[in-house]
Amino acid sequence: MNFKKKRWHALPGQPLTEMDKKIMYWENKGKRVPTRDLIKTPEQIEGIRRAGVVNTGVLDEVARQIHIGMSTLEIDEICMEYCKAHNATPACLNYEGFPKSVCTSINEVVCHGIPKAEDILQEGDIINVDFTTIVDGYYADASRMFIMGKTTPEKEQLVRVAKECLEIGMEAAKPYSFVGDIGNAIEKHCKKYHYGVVRDLCGHGVGLHFHEDPDVCHYGRKGTGMLLVPGMVFTIEPMINMGTWRVFIDGDDPYGWEVISEDELPSAQWEHTLLMTEHGVEVLTY
Predict the structure, then answer these.
(1) How far apart are CA 274 and CA 185, in angstroms?
(2) Cα separation, 105 vs 237, whole angstroms
(3) Strand 196-197 to 267-269 pairing
(4) Is 0.85 surpassed by the pTM of this model?
(5) Distance of CA 269 to the CA centre of its chain
(6) In this predicted model, what pLDDT tens digit does every residue of 43-61 receive, in sequence order?
(7) Can you spell out the DSSP letters for 74-96?
(8) In 23-164, which ranges are E strands?
């Protein structure tokens, strides 16, 4: 996403707030700060919160019904039916040519797996289900991992560590810290297990649009990237590969969406939509 430099200033006719002063302090030090439109109003936050409730409901329904022997196309149908029943729209459907409502990524598929009738869940599979909901024009985005029956200890550990990476990233996301602090904390945890943190894809701002600034990389250095300010809404969604961090686009995918780990070892991902507050992040999706 392109960042347009715009000096921070008080609202017309308003005195400088403490938040204004903190943002201007970092801007004067040469740090990247958000534009005012990235800081959501209370009304917008409530809209995003409502979308988050529906999004959580979608994934809860998937969790209730997912089972060995079902196709990923059936998961798509579950998501579509839930949206219809709750006056919501799946953001993925027809987004830049994506043909389904949800991403279903099995084993070595890192993300953007397309639901298919022929993709049948097998004993030992791990699958990421990633869904974005639009409710009254507001967006919320989350994903969960599911283990089908009994899998290997290696896959179990990968799924667990990927969730820990999300939690560690959330802990690192403090008001007036930086996006790079999140990625640095996640990368450090992954190195303990010799896992690869995918670099080609990242978290992102969300709420009024599907993808907004800032990009939230899951690797990096502390003190880099955009300043995180109360009122910002964004995702953290680390994609953790059992082997290399490198990925490729599946050449057999006619839509050009499915991302696979370069060494074709398993990958895992968890994602929340988060609101930055004065005290840390509030989870808007589960």
Answers:
(1) 17
(2) 14
(3) unpaired
(4) yes
(5) 9
(6) 999 999 999 999 999 999 9
(7) HHHHHHHHHHHHTT-EETTTTGG
(8) 89-90, 103-106, 109-111, 126-135, 138-147
